[in-house]
Amino acid sequence: MTGLSELLHDELQPLQRTLDTLETPAVLIDADVADANLVRWQQRCDDLGLANRPHIKTHRSVAWAMRQLQLGASGITVQTVGEAEVMADGGIDDLFLTTNVLGAAKLARLGALARRTKLAVVADSDAVVDAVADAAREAGATITVLIECDTGGGRCGLADPAAIAAMAKRISATSGVQFGGLMTYPAAGKRQQSQKVLEAAIDACKAVGIAVPVVSSGGSPDMWSDEGLAPVTEYRAGTYIYNDRALLNHGTATLDQCAMTVLATVVSRPTADRAIIDAGSKALTSDLLGLDGYGMVLEHPEARIYQLNEEHGLIDISACSAKPEVGDRIHVLPNHTCVVTNLFDRLYVVSGGALLGALPVDARGRSG
Amino acid sequence: MTGLSELLHDELQPLQRTLDTLETPAVLIDADVADANLVRWQQRCDDLGLANRPHIKTHRSVAWAMRQLQLGASGITVQTVGEAEVMADGGIDDLFLTTNVLGAAKLARLGALARRTKLAVVADSDAVVDAVADAAREAGATITVLIECDTGGGRCGLADPAAIAAMAKRISATSGVQFGGLMTYPAAGKRQQSQKVLEAAIDACKAVGIAVPVVSSGGSPDMWSDEGLAPVTEYRAGTYIYNDRALLNHGTATLDQCAMTVLATVVSRPTADRAIIDAGSKALTSDLLGLDGYGMVLEHPEARIYQLNEEHGLIDISACSAKPEVGDRIHVLPNHTCVVTNLFDRLYVVSGGALLGALPVDARGRSG
């Protein structure tokens, strides 16, 4: 992992702490595990002939995005204009912004981005197509627009093939924008349904004389499944860099492939069955993602984090054979890595059990 | 509100945006509503002869803490060493840190704080008392220690009066620390139970010859209740500055007293019954606090925010008479204001319908 080492060397902030003296709560990233996750997924995309366009919402760090590109990614995916700006500032020049952009000020920022990077966005209404086209013309740039398709996920997107074809025609006929293809985020476990909707949409576009250059799909939970991939040319996965308890529970990742833990200290043991750590909803978030409890304590897998206050996690340790004591430091595998990253200015990078330094979360808080 | 105007004048960052062109999602604070909340609560504390020690975890802004002190607060409450450092840097010199502090590096920071501010902390174990005392002696300072009591809340704290009295004796006999009294966070709706535990603890301390100078209680939900206040000398409330949907639902605040909203844009209307806004779990958080849905849309109170993705809120608008359209800007009353504040570097301050400027969230992310 020479490339990673070089990137980290440039990006990591030096620390006056070792792993033993780091103040808690702190987010630890095992660089070797994370990098192996990136390498393994790139290899699979290469094997399948899929373009790999990782979603950087999970790490929000320029260094990791650069590493993903170095390994062979065709570009990156971003979810907000703010993320796009941070990544462009970091030198990344091929961005796919998978959100409908609206509002005069934000559209002006989009136009400015299009002047300095290769930029694609999505749309699922004429209002968005027209707004993006206006912004592109205003900036003297061209923006690629993919149509977001609802293939069963029930989020944004068009589902009717005729409506998708009509919008493809509209995009093709509008100056400032060019038609880039179709984009979807399939429902978990429903990739065959997604395939049917996409194939019908592609046929409808072809029937009106419009080629579909890119079919972009995404999602970490089903990323290793071969089901229903056929029309897809590009894959957007995000969480796979760090993985988390939700993906572990889903069978997408093993525990050895989970790169992020939240280091916390047991600050109170008020009863025989209750331990309290200094990581609460401002460190772990309240995201449950269908799981029981707010994370898994690696040292005490029988423990259950049953409640979070803002700075405290309340743990039922009644089932633990060895009970954590006041002052113990424990590692929590968070339910959902992407929202944890976004709470911290920096993550602490570990390799071979040693603390290498702090990695800035460059786009933290850039939801606007 | 001359005092507030002066404080805001010093603290607000000027903007190139008006309220109409502000990029979403953005957190808006109605300064007049927030200030009236502060004035009303200070008046009640004055009427009751209670020391008001507001918890700054809700706003994490030096300017608001200064305003609370200007109105008559006896000092402030903080929940983390990081919050304490930010407030001390801002010139606030009377801090109550209501958490058990452990770990060599964090204790060293605590000692450094004690050299420059009046500082009290809590403890509920001998290990914490000894650690704080060591840190104080190391710094050549004295730290006041209150004993955290579990009066029914089931968080940290001792519940047994004899154990509390024994710890009070230990604190009194230890150099570097001095006994400051008792602290609790009562369970909602159980202040009479809290009263009984506190009175028994006070009696037990007196029986061993230890006076209890301060009895500190807290919590916004029951702050307006007269029940079980008798032994309490100091009150810690935080959320009341902004209020939120949880306190509205609890009957603690009216809608007119809610100062924080999240401004969002409707970016998609995929079906007749579904609207999607550009505020998701990275803007509203997944905190439910027992409520149905992730916030209340002020313009469409019949709408239900039934799912959050990271940057999108999915809204069921089937019950709405007038349906929001793509491009509409709406205001969401969040379930839990404290965790929303912590996601943003700045909040946007509004007065009389005009945007005054951006207020930095000075201690955002300072959970460590």
UniProtKB/TrEMBL annotation, chains A, B:
The keyword Lyase applies. It is an enzyme of class 5 (isomerase). Its EC number is 5.1.1.1. Keywords: Isomerase, Lyase. Residues 259-351 form the D-serine dehydratase-like domain. One of its GO terms (molecular function) is alanine racemase activity. Pfam families: Ala_racemase_N (PF01168), D-ser_dehydrat (PF14031). InterPro entries: Ala_racemase_N, D-amino_acid_metab_enzyme, D-ser_dehydrat-like_dom, D-ser_dehydrat-like_sf, PLP-binding_barrel. Belongs to the DSD1 family. This is Alanine racemase.
